Fold this protein.
Amino acid sequence: MAHVVLEGFRPEKGEFVVAGPSVAEEIVNGIAVRALCGKTWVPNRDPKRYPLCPTCKEIAQQMGWKLPVG
């Protein structure tokens, strides 16, 4: 499964707020990430090759976030 990881957010008014290192940095440095669904892992594969986690998708949609097609 591919999971949704929050790298930061943009409030209605203001600049983007970083929540932590980017996923790319975490891949390079071997640092674990936490998905919206709670899964923790060290990313190392192309997420476009896997179906989107239904729990991450549901949480993201409830938050009103736009998700990539797939």
Remarks:
- The radius of gyration is 13 Å.
